[in-house]
Design goal:
The structure holds 2 protein chains of 2 kinds.
Chain A lengths: L1 H27 L1 H22 L8 H6 L7 H15 L5 H22 L6 H31 L1
Helix pairs in contact in A: 1-2, 5-6
Chain B lengths: L1 H26 L1 H22 L16 H43 L13 H17 L1
Helix pairs in contact in B: 1-2, 1-3, 2-3, 3-4
Classes of the chains: A mainly alpha, B mainly alpha.
């Protein structure tokens, strides 16, 4: 149950950081903002690791033995920022949000299948329900957006 | 074309959370967050250098705008922990639900300098569907 709440809070934090990023990007630029974020984040986690000695009980050898791709998460994160920056201004925000959500959801179901987590009919059915909900709200927003545009 | 790219961006997010989660399983949650940030900082530094972009942080920037970096640390940490116990699809599905709720609240009250968009009651239907989908995912 605790993890379910943590995952939910993560979603809220995503929105919070997206808004702060957008404000920061307006002042200094999107890539400069990303640089600032990673610098602040790195200092922050560096301090945490420093004060938790137990967290670094691992040898360099053990790190080198891991496959190369496992380290690419941070790289992909920056690519996502860059890609969003190219894509989002070119399609309406509600489309982009919906499409990004759908991409996430179905990639996630596939990945669970390949990483040995159970893939069940429930996950697919649940995924479809979530998409239905996203689509429904998308059309509510779209309807009101169209009305708002016509009144101008 | 851009629509396909938007879907691919979503796929990348799922791949990213998976890689980070697998890394955390191997070397521990905190160290994984440290490495994710080192790799990310190197990547963005390259982009800035090759794009010949200059950073000018001397202007009056309110301190809270630097907060996103700290949020990012918490975010990667939470995602790593949840990945371990929930798998990727439930972690991301709950994340999407959290995003929908948070953006609804922020829009409704016009928080954090955003425009106010009153929440439409019809959208409760969508939120309930999303919530039902999550329950189906978790239970079955």
């Amino acid at each position: 149950m605790m993890y379910i709440i943590l995952a939910f809070i993560s979603g809220c934090l995503v929105i919070l950081s997206m808004i702060i990023n957008a404000h920061l990007a307006k002042k200094i630029g999107i890539f400069q903002g990303t640089f600032v974020n990673y610098t602040v984040g790195l200092s922050f986690i560096f301090l945490i690791v420093l004060f938790r000695h137990s967290a670094v009980n691992i040898s360099l050898n053990a790190l080198l033995r891991l496959p190369f791709w496992i380290y690419l998460g941070g790289f992909i994160g920056v690519i996502v920022v860059a890609a969003s920056n190219k894509i989002i201004p070119r399609i309406p925000t509600i489309y982009s949000t919906l499409l990004v959500f759908i991409g996430q959801l179905f990639a996630a179901i596939l990945i669970d299948y390949f990483t040995g987590h159970a893939i069940s009919k429930g996950k697919i059915a649940g995924g479809l329900l979530i998409c239905a909900g996203l689509l429904y709200n998308f059309y509510v927003d779209k309807k009101h957006l169209d009305v708002a545009q016509q009144t101008f | 074309m851009y629509k396909l790219s938007a879907v691919l961006t979503g796929v990348l997010v799922a791949v990213m959370v998976t890689f980070n989660g697998l890394l955390a399983n191997q070397i521990g949650d905190y160290l994984a967050v440290l490495i994710v940030h080192i790799v990310g900082l190197i990547t963005i530094s390259f982009i800035l250098i090759f794009g010949r972009r200059k950073i000018n942080v001397n202007r009056d920037i309110p301190v809270y705008l630097f907060g996103a970096g700290a949020i990012g640390v918490v975010l990667v940490l939470f995602n790593n922990i949840c990945f371990k116990y929930l798998g990727i699809s439930i972690t991301l599905a709950l994340g999407l639900f959290g995003q929908s709720i948070a953006s609804g609240i922020i829009d409704h009250f016009g928080l954090l300098g955003m425009d106010t968009h009153t929440f439409r009651k019809e959208k409760l239907v969508g939120l309930i569907l999303i919530f039902a989908g999550i329950i189906v995912m978790v239970v079955y």
